[in-house]
Amino acid sequence: MDKKSIAVVAFALFSLFFGAGNLILPPQLGFKAGNLWWLVALGFSLSAVLIPILGILAHSRLQGTMFDFADKVSPTFSLVYCYIVYAISIALPSPRTASVTHEMAVEPLWDTSSLVTSLIYFTLVYIFVINRSKILDVIGKFLTPAILLVLVLVIGIASATLDFSFGATSFASPFSHAILEGYQTFDAIGAVVVGGVIIISINLKHKDASYEAKKSLIAKAGIFAGLGLFLVYTGLMLTGALFQNDFEAGITRTALLRGISLETLGNVTNGFLTVLVSLACFTTAVGIVTGTADFVKGRFGDSQKAYIFTAILGCVLGVLMGQFNVGYIIAVALPALMFIYPITIVLILLNILPTRYATPKVFRWVVTATILFSVPDFMASVGWGDAILPYVSWIPLQSFHLGWALPALFVFLVSNNLERKQ
């Protein structure tokens, strides 16, 4: 594959994961991390960059759909997993785009309620989903480069004009906190859901290319896309850390991003960034609702009624959840992510391994162990942490809310050893 093909796929992957909602997470992480911003950047990149890129690599091996990710566990499990992922998508990250738009673009200018914003926002989303307009596809091609350019200016100006003096971190466990914050990007889920679209596009454009050539293309493009994401996220965290003494400690994620943008770019360019972020949020919401409606339509024999019903449901959920502030939606999302994200990470890792190390039995045992040891983290996230602590404190890494990791690895090693003996 030539360099142009690699560049095109790399930018497509970068655009796929570089969502507008993700922009509000790194600055506040750096802002609170202070002198340990670099450690937080590594933790965040582990779950928000490395795992999603590995998800794309797993797709390149499977050459299939989202169902194939969990099919080795069982077809029924795979179907349930898909429904849960799509349900989470329309109930949390989609409404969050409306909340981000309200806090960044509407609230600073007009004294209107967030309910009005989310109602108008998702009415427009529904119109675009039903009509499947290609206007947003055209706009989308210019959004990512424009946002990226403005962010480079923000990071560059902050780095060139501010003193590199950092305060103390406010995190008790910076690295693990950053890993969990990376869950909020939903990018591992995004890799599983829409990674297949990238594969299909490559297959259509390079019909005569061999399996190994396509795999190499995706691997190289993934490395460049991952490097780009890492640099942008790290730059935003550094910028947040540099502004640690310029804003109140309790500032919200959206207010911090808006404040940093005003300090570095001024009113005009900040307004430009606000419009770009709002448009990017809108295209993300349309994409999520459309993708979910397409999935349900396919499960019901290409029924247009199922498509319309799902689109309406997705937009109603958007209005109901989108009226809340971003911080609240992130808090509400945590229990769902503490349960589904470990499963998704394990499925991605198993799917990139050679088949001899990831047989159907290994899939079933490792996923089962992951589910079981994710339950304490899920219960802790809904407020039952103190009640279950005496029973789960023995689990390694449980205090960091990563109690599933070592048990999953242990079961993987044991199950592989048993498989070889058999």
Output the keywords.
422 residues; mainly alpha; Amino acid/polyamine transporter I; 2 domains; globular
CATH architecture assignment name of the largest domain = Up-down Bundle
The number of distinct β-strands equals: 0
**CATH fold naming of the largest domain:** Amino acid/polyamine transporter I
Fraction of helical residues: over 70%
One letter per element, helices H and strands E, the order comes to HHHHHHHHHHHHHHHH
Mean pLDDT across every amino acid position = 85
Shape category: globular
- In this structure, how is the largest beta sheet organized? none
Spans of at least 5 consecutive residues whose pLDDT stays below 50 are none
The secondary structure category is mainly alpha
* Terminal-residue CA separation: 42 Å
**Overall number of domains:** 2
Task: Give me the CATH superfamily of the largest domain.
Answer: Amino acid/polyamine transporter I
| Computed Rg | 21 Å
Reconstruct the topology from this structure.
Elements: H1 3-17, H2 25-33, H3 37-62, H4 67-70, H5 75-91, H6 93-106, H7 114-131, H8 135-161, H9 174-183, H10 187-205, H11 211-242, H12 253-299, H13 304-322, H14 326-352, H15 360-392, H16 405-421
Helix pairs in contact: 1-10, 1-11, 2-3, 2-11, 3-9, 3-10, 3-11, 3-14, 5-12, 6-7, 6-12, 6-13, 6-14, 7-12, 7-13, 8-11, 8-12, 12-13, 14-15, 15-16
